[in-house]
Amino acid sequence: MRNQSQLIAVMRCAYIRYMRVPMPRHYVMCPPRYFAVDYAINPWMDPDVPVDPERALRQWTELRDTYRRLGHLVDEVEPQPGLPDMVFAANSGTVVDGRVLGSKFAKPQRAAEAEHFRRWFVENGFRDVTMPQETNEAEGDFTWTGLLMLAGAGFRTEPGAHAEAQEVLGVPVVSLRLVDPRYYHLDTALFVLSEATDERPAHIAYYPEAFSPGSQAVLRRLFPDAVVADAEDARCFGLNAISDGRHVVLPVEATALAEKVAAQGYEPVFVDISELRKAGGGPKCCTLEIRK
């Protein structure tokens, strides 16, 4: 990693070249008031490793406040006792053009979260809310690029949910197969740096080895200019990032990835999610985006 002054110089030159423009976003989050690791439903979880709920809450609060400092709207959902993973709001629904496709969790430990979030959508004015028939873990495995939806399968979301999402949300869906159990959701291996516009295509970052060979070929064809992350980027949940088109919020450990995105004109914004990562989550996992 270059020193800070070198990174700033890279960012300035790249920003002039690419002119990355931030777009205001609307996020939904859920405080980790009942956060714990009482069970293991992904390779990152170990109930024998101590968890500090107060530290997790401080990290979550800093993430929320970072979004607000960047000019984004953040709504909060009331957490519920007995649902320690409810903090990972990205798994609660997928919203495109105001249409909501709810979630249906693969693991029984999280199943009750779906109804709490469904009620939140209805109580907050969303009238077009569909609860799925197929298992889908929402933005964990559905990533909107501005023109099409990338959809992951292999560990949580079922392939049949991809067709259901296309019917409910009315957008084209491209299926991708995940093959590494550490990257059990699409949002642990890929994120959108900037959405597609009339002037230019979407720009993404991803970790190729998380995907099957065929899915890697699809990603290369669709996104030839993608930022390609390495194993170290992936292990620290660097791909579980959030971008508003200019600012990229990512874990403090993801220094190599930060340098790569800075060279493309984006501005890295670091947050500490080390406590939340003990449950297999990062910035994106904590963040559901509302697209109206």
TrEMBL record:
<dbReference type="GO" id="GO:0006525">
    <property type="term" value="P:arginine metabolic process"/>
</dbReference>
<comment type="similarity">
    <text>Belongs to the DDAH family.</text>
</comment>
<protein>
    <submittedName>
        <fullName>N-dimethylarginine dimethylaminohydrolase</fullName>
    </submittedName>
</protein>
<dbReference type="GO" id="GO:0016403">
    <property type="term" value="F:dimethylargininase activity"/>
</dbReference>
<keyword id="KW-0378">Hydrolase</keyword>
<dbReference type="GO" id="GO:0045429">
    <property type="term" value="P:positive regulation of nitric oxide biosynthetic process"/>
</dbReference>
<feature type="active site" description="Nucleophile">
    <location>
        <position position="285"/>
    </location>
</feature>
<dbReference type="InterPro" id="IPR033199">
    <property type="entry name" value="DDAH-like"/>
</dbReference>
<dbReference type="GO" id="GO:0016597">
    <property type="term" value="F:amino acid binding"/>
</dbReference>
<feature type="active site" description="Proton donor">
    <location>
        <position position="185"/>
    </location>
</feature>
<dbReference type="GO" id="GO:0000052">
    <property type="term" value="P:citrulline metabolic process"/>
</dbReference>
